[in-house]
Amino acid sequence: MLAEPPNAAKPVSASAEAEGFVLEMEVDGRDLAAMRQRVRAALAELDQDLVQDVELVCTELAANACDHAAGPHHLVLRHGTRDGLPSVLVEVRDATPDRFPQVGVSTLGPHRGHGLKMVQSLAAAWGVHGDTTTKTVWAVVTTP
């Protein structure tokens, strides 16, 4: 896990039409299906394998924020490239800057705690950064 997104993960235009910002929305933990629908719509022109991976990463990071951190919770997607491949930077921001996610650990029961393992396997990189009032968990997902 890295403290800040690496320079290579920052959005770089794959084409003039797909530069940078794609979607920003508030996340409601009671309706993650609506979030997934908006993610699919925002990324409709990308490779569908990439979109499915991004959708899963968004769901896991948003669910973690809603389950373990104070709101409001915000999702930001940015399209770019990483190592020459199309990529999407996923950022989920919450209002609990002093509580960082832990891979494989959950306070919600023995059958929980696997979401960040999936994020690790799907993301080219992921990490956490924050300030005095917010924390952002981010992941870069590239074409499989």
Automatic annotation (TrEMBL):
<protein>
    <recommendedName>
        <fullName>Histidine kinase/HSP90-like ATPase domain-containing protein</fullName>
    </recommendedName>
</protein>
<keyword id="KW-0418">Kinase</keyword>
<dbReference type="GO" id="GO:0004674">
    <property type="term" value="F:protein serine/threonine kinase activity"/>
</dbReference>
<dbReference type="InterPro" id="IPR003594">
    <property type="entry name" value="HATPase_dom"/>
</dbReference>
<dbReference type="InterPro" id="IPR036890">
    <property type="entry name" value="HATPase_C_sf"/>
</dbReference>
<dbReference type="Pfam" id="PF13581">
    <property type="entry name" value="HATPase_c_2"/>
</dbReference>
<keyword id="KW-0808">Transferase</keyword>
<feature type="domain" description="Histidine kinase/HSP90-like ATPase">
    <location>
        <begin position="30"/>
        <end position="139"/>
    </location>
</feature>
<keyword id="KW-0723">Serine/threonine-protein kinase</keyword>
<dbReference type="InterPro" id="IPR050267">
    <property type="entry name" value="Anti-sigma-factor_SerPK"/>
</dbReference>
